[in-house]
Amino acid sequence: MRKDRLTTLRELYEGDSDRAHRFRYVVLTFDIVTVLFVIATSFTHHGPVVEAIDAVFGVFILADFAARIAISQNRLRFLLMPVTLADIVSIISFLAPLAGEGLGFLRVVRTLRFLHTYQLLKRLRADFPFFRHNQDVFIAAINLMVFIFVMTGLVYATQYGSNPQISNYADALYFTVTALTTTGFGDITLTGSFGRMISVVVMIFGVTLFLRLAQVLFRPNKVRETCRTCGLSLHDADAVHCKHCGAVIHIETEGQN
């Protein structure tokens, strides 16, 4: 019986069936809802209702976490992964009554990892032509947005209550964006040495991710068509031969009038 359950879980998390893909879309939707909940509740008082919803999110995240441990081939390696550690912090944050969901924003790290999995990317390319033709732009934009969200959440979690300039998530987001773009209006600053280190990380890594997004936006458009001879996957939209090995490739196009 236990073996059957593990087989079912492994098929859902790693399989290629329609049921597995639907399950992963549900998990992705749940992750996004969790992140939006953390943002929304930063503007409200955390009363009994919010704490109850926190507990529900925590239980579902714990169940997902337990399932992924069960199907892991190397559990020690899995437990030491940064994504796993972020999940553990998120679970504690949602379930601990005194912690609230202050560090629940780290769930977005799991979402980023999930979006980068081969199975989900393959399904997104198959289900959404717009994603298929603009995958690199989507991935670069998601990387930047997740970085902004994580740093904003970190600013909020470490500064709220001790820094009068950070009273909600919007204040933390405003600081993160001004620091990332090096605008630096100076109306909001982080206190303490740790706050200054957060500012440095935002400026260095944020600018790098922003430049990566600009690179994929303005470089010549490529299409993803894997060459059957050499395996090169990106080609010019009007290519008829692989630029690496010269083999004929067949890129589907709609043509122009």
Automatic annotation (TrEMBL):
SUPFAM superfamilies the record matches: Voltage-gated potassium channels
Example GO biological process: action potential
Cellular-component GO terms for this entry: voltage-gated potassium channel complex
One annotated GO molecular function: voltage-gated potassium channel activity
Subcellular localization(s) per the UniProt record: Membrane
Name this polypeptide is given: Voltage-gated potassium channel
Alphabetized InterPro entries for the sequence: K_chnl_dom (IPR013099), VG_K_chnl (IPR028325), Volt_channel_dom_sf (IPR027359)
Keyword set, alphabetical order: Ion channel, Ion transport, Membrane, Transmembrane, Transmembrane helix, Transport
Residue ranges crossing the lipid bilayer per the database entry: 25-43, 49-71, 78-99, 137-157, 169-188, 194-214
Gene3D superfamilies (alphabetical): 1.10.287.70, Voltage-gated potassium channels. Chain C (1.20.120.350)
Species: Salipiger abyssi
Domain Potassium channel: 146-218
Membrane topology summary: Multi-pass membrane protein
